[in-house]
């Protein structure tokens, strides 16, 4: 029997997919790249974006049509709103919450009946189930990059976001499990490890002192780096500005293995919009975090998330976001036009910024990003950087990798054996959104 899995959404879904694959292969199913060859096919959905949900409907329509001529089992899980979940019950053979993954083999044995397991909330203990889920070993999709979930759910309830309704309240994974997984990955030679959570820097707060906090977790991971000669970089996403204290920045500055790249979502540069978004932080509070980063880790790159055209956003408020872009000089910003999501508080509010204006604001903010990121990129020229080679580049005859600060660099080489290795590259040219260099040496850079 063969299986195929489609993964939509964020890195958390990507991490979850690695555990789904391990369960399926433990049952004897074999992965195939071509979904048309699969006997069982599933999708990890994302209700956070309407485009992702639209893709689910497109996929299941094709799969159900295939059922007319062949035996096929379909399933869906992931980050799904209750309203979407109910609709999917009529379309998929199996619907389940990700925390119920350990029960998946039993569900498959009864695949002839649509399984509303994910809706049986009254008979479940979500916290116990997510801890059981975390004990499922992942089948890592890469031999040198890995994602480690440290937390599930969110307690912040930003008015634009559906995550608290798709993943529930915050639950922290036992630190012993996280530290052991990091150690095992390092021993196996992994070079890039990303800690995942909806609000990673509130890690441990749900355990009321029975668990270490996020800074202490990073400190323990940093000690692993100090105890080995192997070079590796550890990242995390995403922290919340409200909980981004100086202590976390101090720990990152302390250890070489903690990647000097911070992804800190601002969402808007206007305080009134932030209040309406229920972000629970001001621009001033955000600025204090950035000042701590610039002081203690001056070499760190800074990434963010921004929403343009949020309900009621005025031109003046948008201009404040442009000011924030220029002030904080982001290396990368993931900019999205606001769209309503069922379940989120703002769903009932008017989506009153014209689509044309949203597109204009997106374009302007992207131009601003190009100016500030381009300035940083130009300063890289004629300097040498260690990069982790990740893949072939879209430019023929080139490979692509990332610096410790996650700046993507391409260089001329067709030696695919370099993928997954550290190399030294000298930057020869840069534009606002691209950096190019030449290979200087391939040496024993796996050792710090």
Description:
Its EC number is 2.8.4.3. It is a single chain. This protein has 448 residues and is of the alpha/beta class. It folds into four domains: 2-127, Methylthiotransferase, N-terminal domain (Rossmann fold, 3-Layer(aba) Sandwich), CATH 3.40.50.12160; 142-257, Transcription Regulator spoIIAA; 260-376, 2-Layer Sandwich (Transcription Regulator spoIIAA); 381-441, Nucleic acid-binding proteins (OB fold (Dihydrolipoamide Acetyltransferase, E2P), Beta Barrel), CATH 2.40.50.140. It has 13 helices and 19 strands. The strands form five sheets. It has a six-stranded parallel β-sheet, sandwiched between helices. A hairpin with a 4-residue loop joins strand 18 and strand 19 (435-441). Helix 12 (315-328) runs parallel beside helix 13. The longest helix is centred in the C-terminal third of the chain and has 26 residues, at 355-380. The model is unreliable at 112-122 (pLDDT under 50).
